[in-house]
């Protein structure tokens, strides 16, 4: 096991987590108005996996800042080969709220152990199940199988959450974190049929949360800059220059989670 892939993410101390939440809330509320709905759907006495939609780079920060402080929330990601390189990676590693994984998928077993261990010890694993940024405010791309696989391995329910309003970020805009009812496992097993069945249920639950959400026009130059500050949408760049899609561009890397060890694609 490599040094950069510990068996389980460490829990940050209460003071550090409180500082991170306070700083994120202060920073986000300076630019946006945030509303959280559906908190009554969150399981009260059991860990769970939180699957959130992902229109923007800001989404994981919203989850870290505005989800309840107990149980503790860990974010699955970022997708980086080495967390000690770059100021953003070092800052994320310092925060101790992330479960990073390697884009080369050379640490699938370690990634699975770390992700599942978060829930087995009573914490929450938050994951953007699309595996990439979505391009529309009211729609998500087909989910990867990672959330279902992790949840089945941990025997934890999945809570769907739609993040509405972050596709375009303009000053004073209201962003809503809309939490849905948990998707239960109902006796499913962590094998190929079980993962596929649970993924279908989760996709339906996520789409239900986005019913009625309308697309909004892009903001002005500053809002566009904030929106795309850390966004990566290479498929849109290729389309803009008229380049043919490269191999695998229609099906993004399975960033949301690894395949079941020892099994094929789920």
Explain this structure.
The chain has a single domain, classed as Glycerol-3-phosphate (1)-acyltransferase (3-Layer(aba) Sandwich), CATH 3.40.1130.10. The chain is built from eight helices and seven strands; from the N terminus they run H-E-E-H-E-H-E-H-E-H-E-E-H-H-H. The chain has helices spanning 14-31, 59-66, 87-95, 108-120, 146-154, 192-209, 221-227, 234-241; strands at residues 32-37, 49-52, 73-79, 98-101, 124-127, 158-164, 173-179. A seven-stranded mixed beta sheet has the order 1-7-6-2-5-3-4, sandwiched between helices. Helix 3 links the parallel strand 3 (73-79) and strand 4 (98-101). Helix 4 crosses helix 5. It is globular and about 50 Å long. It starts with 13 loop residues before the first helix and ends in a 25-residue tail after the last helix.
